[in-house]
Amino acid sequence: MLTGLDFVALQVRAVEDAARFFEEKLGLRRAPASPPGAVVFATTPIPFAVREPLPGVDLDALERPGTGVALWFRADDTQALHDKLATDGITVLREPETGPFGRTFTFAGPEGYAITVHDG
Questions:
Q1: Any residues with CB less than 8 A from the CB of 60 and at least 6 apart, and which?
Q2: Virtual CA dihedral for 13, 67, 73, 44, nearest 10 degrees?
Q3: Is the CB of residue 114 less than 8 Å from the CB of residue 93?
């Protein structure tokens, strides 16, 4: 039986470029160790990573990778992060709004993945 989500990774064409985005734009820190072809971040309670595509995955064949998956991150100050990303020219897919999980917005991350951030 499953007991819960344990790890999340995005498959990307350029691992180091995606890792820099998550470090520089979102403030994530790299974990002390990562497997070959991946960068793992020290996120809690669930580790998050960017990694090379698995065999048979053609990211170029997809209009937007991750379609159908909702990827949410919690932030200390969602509005401030939105403002910083918008100023940096990052595409905002859904403007900030207040909902059941606090202040929430969605932006296009590396490779076009839709990433939602909330205060909750």
A1: 13
A2: -70
A3: yes
